[in-house]
Write a structure and sequence with these properties.
- This protein has seven helices and five strands; from the N terminus they run αααααββββαβα.
- The chain is of the alpha+beta class.
- It folds into two domains: 132 residues, Four Helix Bundle (Hemerythrin (Met), subunit A); 94 residues, Nonspecific Lipid-transfer Protein, Chain A.
- The radius of gyration is 18 Å and the shape is globular.
- The two termini are 22 Å apart.
Length: 246
Amino acid sequence: MLDLIDFTSYLDHVRADGERLILVARDCLDAPVPPCPGWTVQDLVTHVAEVYEHKLACTLLQRQPDPWPPQWAAQRDPLEWFVDAHQRLLALFTECGPLAPSHTWWPGDQTVGFWARRMAQETVIHRIDAELSCGQSSPIAPELAVDGVDEVLVVFLAGDWSEAPFDECQGQSVVVRTGGRAWEVQLLRGAVSVSQPHGGEVAEVSGEPAAVLLWLWGRGPLRELRHSGDSAVPALLRDRLRLATQ
């Protein structure tokens, strides 16, 4: 994990981006969400509320909640649900602290701190989704964006335990650079590795932290970034990442 953000700052980002998401969403619940085909903003709000509930349950139960999702009340107002779940999540994080145990899907980190990071990134990406849907925009804090690039490459992409081979991946390497940090991603048929750059890559992608983060998550175009080398490799990285994050 990068050392750019501490636990309190993660909570501050969860709080601020959650408040911004719900503020934007209130007036356009029926709008479609371009990055999530088939969803409306109301579906987006409901999804994030349900994600918060899952992290609450993982911590309170100390295991994967099963069955999931439960049968929520059919008449539950999505805006009220989001606000309630958001407040309870922040209260739990504050009460527990980063080192308290929690069930997570990442074997190397079974703590509340893992979820604080994950929920900071989850919330900012879906805040962007709400803004894209409703014709608004606001910046992403650079340190949060750099941390998000690290998370999506190391935890989601290199950490993906899918056994399904990806035939187009034959060892190509691409370096991702932003915010003074760099990651070399090697795309193998049955795995992905992420390390410090050591030369030999066939492509490089770089840009401002927010632009790189949004491109990796499929919320921004490659044309807003600087890229060199084999242009097919960044596209392959995005295709592989799409499988790891769906």
